[in-house]
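Input record (one chain):
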Amino acid sequence: MARLSESVSAESLLARTVRGIRGADAKALEAARARQQVLTKPEGSLGLLEDLSIRLAGMYGQVPVPVPSHPVVGLFAGDHGVWAQGVSPDPQEITTQQMVNMAAGGAAISVLSRQMGAQLWITDVGALHEVDAPIRQRCVRRGTDDISQGPAMSTDEAVQALEVGIETGLEAVEGGADILVTGEMGIANTTPASALISVFTGCSPAEVTGKGAGSDDRRHQHKIGVVSRALQVNQPDADHPVEALAKVGGFEHAAMAGYILAAASRRVPVLIDGVIACSAALTATAICPEVRDFIITSHAGAEPGITASTSALGLPALLDLGMRLGEGSGAILTLPIVQASAHILNEMATFEDADVTDIKVTGETDLPDALDTSAPPCRVLVLGGARSGKSTFAESRLPHGSRVTYVATSERNPDDAEWEERIRLHRTRRPATWQTVETKDIASVLLADDDSPVLVDCLGVWITRILDEVGAWTADPGDGTWQKSLRSRVDELTDAIRRTRRDVILVSNEVGMGVVPDTPAGRLFRDELGRLNAAVGQVCDEVWMCVAGVPKRWA
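The corresponding structure, as predicted from the sequence alone:
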């Protein structure tokens, strides 16, 4: 619903233009969405290009969509009374100097317009001085008043400037333009732009006021204060957009808003540029919300007001090149992207045309059986002689702040004070988060349904207990029964080490580095522990040796 005050004549060009604006064509939007879903690509894989092509269909009202190839850059120039407040480091005469430069083809927008095959229409809508150059002379007044002291212009002047933009846009479309591009020139025009953006987004001046084309930090803070003062003095109301424009806007801002309204009324897209164009777009959509359906936001830019505006409009910027020049430079650069989106919608083959499988029809391929993607367990054997630091090194490999299962293979013996003291010292240095399990059934611990790492200390004690269990110490010479039982227990252990899903570190004595009594029992222990270490080493990922407290990896 349009928001025009009673002071705007119902027969004015502004009112008639606004009455003629309708939103995006719903049938064309639906047709474009449906076509995007059957093009030979994953749905959504072209990102904003897909969304843009659908929006183009809604603007033009048809599928296939016209590829916009006849752009007209409507560039409007004006000066500002607020310049006197020192909001810009540039002298005001640069406005007219740049107008001449643009007309002569030397400005950035002139170069880019030529490159893109666009006509550049420069209109003087409110410059301080008249220029002798081939530009369109439609000056409403020679510069606005200072918005920090009062209104920039009268409401009638605001309407007049809006209608300059409307007339320009209508003339461009009647002359064959199928896409309009906004541009501007005006020293200090980012100050009224910031004021308008603050009005229509509800953001504070500090949130939307940037440095403009070249201000330093000190001038930037001053500029924020000037914008705040302008809003306080004039009290613009977003519900009365034309009056708000008159209070804190500029003539080029008004003309660009009219240019945008003209595009919407003739159902052609309009590319908006930076912070000045964003303020104009917010003004136009405040006057007529349906205008939003025809706006394409070109670039994010360096000005915070652009981000606030695109967010309020709900329209993503297509480029972000860090630009802050204005003139329409960012908008015209976006033209090839707009054209590409139209080509994609029109020319890409459908799944049926190209005989390509469409998984939306056939369904997705089946997932394979679930794979175990967890990291494989790490199995480590740490060897060393007596007092070699093997246990200390093994403990250092495990986390001290989380749960660890500590398997103590020794058997308590209250009658052996020295052995009990060793056990006590070992227990004392273990973290509180570690759980101690006293058992010789190591295999059951390794295969338990638990994911905490395991430390086994030590295999030398374990083999001693197993030899005792199978009766090796007292067996008659030539009796091999105990050896079969022992091999079974060792195989059970090595199989569990191989199958476990838990990280495990096993500590054992290296018998070649210690003193073993030259007795039958001593030789039996030495031989069987050596065989055990070799078997365990075969199924471990790492084998370490500790000598004099220094660990070295051997495998």
